[in-house]
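User: Show me sequence and structure for the first protein, then do the same for the second.

Assistant: Starting with the first protein.
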Amino acid sequence: GQTAATKLASNPQIFIVLGGACSSAATPAAPILWQQGITNICNACSAPSLTAPDRGAQYDGFGRTIASDIDQGASDAKYMSEVMKAKTIVAVHDGSAYAQKLAVVAAKNFTAMGGKVLSTEAVAPTDVDMHPVLTKIAAEKPDVIYMPIFVAAAAQMLRQSKEVSGLEHTGILGGGSLMAAEFIEASGPAVAGFHIAYPDVSVDTMGKGYPAFVAEYKKVYSEAPISGYHANAYDAAEMAVTAIKKVAKTDKDGNLYIGKKAFHDAVFAVKFDGLSGPIGCDTHGQCAKFKPAVYEFISADPKTFSIGKNPKKVWP
């Protein structure tokens, strides 16, 4: 994130960056971009700190078209408590901004609901042998292991949990970072029946223009979108284009000028019914509303990956 932002910030013609793809990249990148007056709109960066009231002036240029994990963590805690009937959990993170902060938020909410967090464990994204941490967790006898971590480590955790005595009846809940065909491939047969918490991307919960968008997308690419955050990305681009139309000026020679400050203010003032739902930023750059859901993988064949089918929505 830092490397990419430094490269982009050195180009005086850049006034808007859409991305990056995750909180770990956006956290160091956004301040570098804003130092040059570049507005940054992210469609998949959900760490609470990025749009927190105390985030600091260095993040004034950052906004996002995805909900905060403040809401995701609260929803995950509710699901573990009310649906999975968990009284105790162990949270697992990988040190990333996304996983660590989401684990903290979920644990805090779970405790507030009367549950008990037995421990919070850390793994590395590159760890291969998860038996030591899984054995430690098994000794604590939690009702649920909550692990909002990324594909490689999560697949190792899931597969190896089947080999550790004491975890036979322990539920496991993953995070939205696992909504990918690669996770099915990496997990193998263990993926069947596995649940992940993810924003609701059902057609009936999206914006009014979403069905027409999907139909047009299929015409062009001969398949439905394979990323869960495609609508959020489209909305980020629409925010940018709408703001450009409001502030761009053309001189008598046909040169186009876009004032960075005017553009930033226009982006944060944009309100519209996006593909993902209503879009409109608060003063801290939170521009989208949260819609909770939980999905279940029903097949271990990566070729069957299709959001809504495999995995299918099982809650609410």
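Switching to the second protein now.
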Amino acid sequence: ISDVVKPNAKPAVQALKSAGIRQTVMLTGDAKKVAENVAASLGIDRVYSELLPGDKVEKVEELLRNKSERAKLAFVGDGINDAPVLTRADVGIAMGTAGSRDTAKCANVLVMTHDLTRLADAVRISRRTHSTAVQNMMIVVIAKILLALLALFGFVQMWHVVAVDIILSVLTVFNSARILNTK
């Protein structure tokens, strides 16, 4: 007897890898043979089996110690047993609405469906959001520095500063709205 693998699990793993996720790891309480068969069928890189909730936390701690400084460790869970691990990972992702409130509170990201393919969407949206935030900050900082230099030498008046500030605000809102078009 074993759990049934979700039908969209394999495409989800493939989509995550296409989105740039370098390594997938499965932490499970299932028996070793079952876990290894599931991991192999899904294309998961590493599997750790027969883990209790506390063992999962220890394994995540080990994975965090062994990752590079720039790398991020995300943990995806859907049950109350996952709450401790969600809080410890760099990014905790809770799946579905059936999970407990505690699990949702412990997560950094809440995906309101059990469709695992939505994880790759979340990765793409978060990367696009980060990129857009950096763009907005750079635009504003460079414009304000240029404006301050022009004001310092008397080339602009106060109404110019106010007008540029309003234009920058509108520009960053429109730039941020592009995130809505993320596929």
